[in-house]
Amino acid sequence: MNAKPWKTWAARSAVATLVVGLMGCATVQVHRIGTDSSTEAAFELEGASKSQLDVEARRLCPNGYHVMRQSQQYQRLDNDDIFYVRWWNRASALVSGPTTQKAQLTVVCKVVPPTP
């Protein structure tokens, strides 16, 4: 018995959405920057959202960190109210990288004082 055309289309759409979602894993770029002290580590992080950068900063600085500079930008697209346009923009952003969102964070890791 043949499957109904709408079921086949729905299954193909679900698989395509899953593949696009898996391809677009968000990345965080980390750049180590120099400081005057040899015991401090400082990093400049770039990614799609500030929450992503906070998670990476906590991983890089297990003793905590000081935020020196941070910024986040989000641009709303012109046709963001139309469902199909919103879906296409999200799907294409997963494949080609975030073009409408950008976040930056510069941190200096806290140094644990030596115990006497």
Poorly predicted sequence stretches spanning 5 or more consecutive residues = 19-24
N- to C-terminal distance:
79 Å
Q: Determine Rg (CA atoms, Å).
A: 21 Å
Proportion in helices: 25-40%
The number of E-state strands comes to 4
Order of strands in the sheet with the most strands?
1-2-4-3
Instruction: Report the order of strands and helices.
Output: HEEHEHE
Please tell me the overall pLDDT.
Answer: 75
Structural class by helix and strand composition = alpha+beta
- Based on Cα principal axes, name the global outline: elongated
Give the key terms.
alpha+beta, four-stranded antiparallel beta sheet, 4 strands
Describe it.
The chain is elongated and about 75 Å long. Helix content is 38%, strand content 26%. It is built from 3 helices and 4 strands, in the order αββαβαβ. With 116 residues, the protein is an alpha+beta fold. Strands 1-2-4-3 form a 4-stranded antiparallel beta sheet, covered by helices on one side. The longest helix is centred in the first third of the chain and has 19 residues.
Topology of this protein?
Blueprint: H1 5-23, E1 29-33, E2 42-47, H2 50-60, E3 65-74, H3 83-96, E4 101-109
Helix pairs in contact: 1-3
